[in-house]
Each structure stands twice: as structure tokens, then as C-alpha cells.
Amino acid sequence: MKRWAGVLALWVAGAAWGQDVEVRMQDMQFQPAQVHIRVGDNVRWLNTEKRGYHTVWFQDEGLDESEPLFPGEAWQRSFDLPGRYEYLCGPHPDMRGVVIVE
Ligand SMILES: [Cu+2]
User: Fold this and answer.
1) Which of 12, 44, 80, 86 has its CA 20 to 30 A from that of 36?
2) Where mainly located (predicted)?
3) pLDDT at residue 60 above 70?
């Protein structure tokens, strides 16, 4: 019985649609600056600084910048199409990252 429950749990995990991936905003950087995900996955950006705010802005796509994210705040987005999605932080344009969706 226990064994079957384990097999079922593995199957459910493998079939799950939309994994969550976290990117931290720390030391004026996106960490990791590059993430590889699969179609349907969700990326969550979390500000783990002691002070100061950041944004997440997919400027190249013509999307709106996120609201300012203060320490402890997060913003998320899912990706439904394969591609390479570059983004930056509005207040700190040198702070950049990329999401690669496969
Ligand atoms: Cu920033």
C-alpha cells in the first residue's frame, strides 16, 4: 500500500503542469540571472534585500513594468511560449536577467 502511494506521488509530480522557479533580487542582481524553464512554468521574483526596491520589466516585449517590489515582496509571471525573454530592473538598468523557456 505504501509502495503504491509512492509510485502515485512520483507520477503526479512528473505530470504536474507549471513548476515554480524562484529568482531572488539580492545585492543589486537577479540571482540566478539566467533560468531555464519549461512551457507553463511560473517564475517568481522575490526581493531579499535588506532595503531598497527593484522591479521586473520585460521591456523588449512592450510589457508594463512591475510595481516596485520592496524587501519581502514578490512578483510572478508564467510563460506559455518557448523563447528567450530578457528583462531588467527599471531603477537599475544594469540589473538584467533572462528566462529561457523550452
Ligand atoms: Cu533593481
Assistant:
1) 12
2) periplasm
3) yes
